[in-house]
Amino acid sequence: MRLILLGPPGAGKGTQSQRLMQRFNIPQLSTGDMLRAAVKAQTPVGIEAQKIMSQGGLVSDDIVIGLISDRIEQADAAHGFILDGFPRTVAQAKALDVILAQKHKELDAVIELRVDEAALLARMEERVRQTIAAGQAVRSDDNPESFRLRLEAYREMTAPVAAFYAELGSLHVVDGMAPIDDVSAQIDAFLKAKAST
Length: 197
Ligand code: ADP
Fold this sequence. Notes:
The chain has 197 residues and is α/β, with parallel strands linked by helices.
């Protein structure tokens, strides 16, 4: 099962990825997590990405395409994966097509979690509150100013990715405003229907 989860920051991609990982026993490939690990380790990629990430901008296509291309090669991704946070630009989506074609692999589904933008800032603030309550470090881009820029980047650069897959007939939209279990049920129902066609 090779899936893409699309949706703005705070749409619930991480939460749904966790569930799908367990259900299908496939890894979640999150470019955000990979980049945060690179920043923490202060690798050359991390050093380059650090500032742009904390400001809420997009890291260069070349960097994230390189990360994903290497990650897909690893053994745990041989039978499938969930892409979370990638592709974020149409150029990344086209690069993914080429990478998969070279490996003679295909995407099974592209699922967009559609949410009401007004709710997203409140979700981010709640995530910050819970993170602090758990004694964990808050992400440097989880503040209202960076969040506004992340939403802008989504509107400008990533919404066209959904349009790109819609045109190919592979986009499925679910209501990301529903309770978590309902969102999961919508995704399961779609994947089940797809498997039986
Ligand atoms: P979010 O919670 O906003 O969906 P992520 O954890 O997916 O955030 O990503 C955090 C940051 O990492 C983004 O704001 C961006 O700077 C960078 N990033 C992650 N994935 C990509 C990508 N595919 N292309 C460019 N930048 C990316």
